Amino acid sequence: MPTPITFTFGDSRALCDELLTLIREGKKTATCGALTYFTEGGEDMPVVGRRDIALDWDGKPAIMIETVEVTIRRFCDVDEDFALAEGEDETLEGWRQGHQAYFERNGGFHPEMELVCERFRLVEDLQGAKP
User: Fold this and answer.
1) A Pfam family for this UniProt protein (predicted)?
2) What is the pLDDT of residues 3-31, one digit of tens each?
3) Which of 14, 64, 77, 114 is 20 to 30 A off residue 98, Cα-Cα?
């Protein structure tokens, strides 16, 4: 079994709290990040079967997730199915707008930038009950 990593969703307390809530509610089962975060930024690539710990904004373990799928695709090639699995927007266009703004805040955006797209399942709420 691959060694788990710890990480934090989002780039602000409000976004982190929102994303953790969406996961706990079963509305968020996917996430993505710029491929450069993993190649140049030194973050660990997600690995199918690995269970990772998402921290809350204060650095406390919040949830455990298990990666079930990893693909690399260009931003412009993300489809509605994946965008809606992220649980943050109700349309592909809303997903595009929100994620473009996020990437612009965090290192830059290009419509053809490559993304690491991860699907996961909630294993355990570490601040509450098991799902």
Assistant:
1) ASCH
2) 889 999 999 999 999 999 999 999 999 99
3) 64
Give kind and range of the element (H or E) at residue 98: helix 92-105
Quick one: CA torsion of 104, 27, 57, 31, rounded to 10 degrees? -40
Residues forming beta bridges with residue 61, ordered by sequence position:
55
Query: CA 76, CA 114: separation in Å to the nearest integer?
Result: 9
Cα(47)–Cα(75) distance, integer angstroms:
20
E-strand stretches of 15-60: 30-34, 51-55
Sheet holding 114-125, edge to edge: 6-8, 51-55, 61-74, 114-125, 30-34
User: How would CATH label the architecture of 6-122?
Assistant: Roll (3.10)
Q: What is the pTM of this model?
A: 0.92
Separation of CA 62 from chain center: 14
| Contact in structure between 56 and 23 (CB atoms under 8 Å) | no
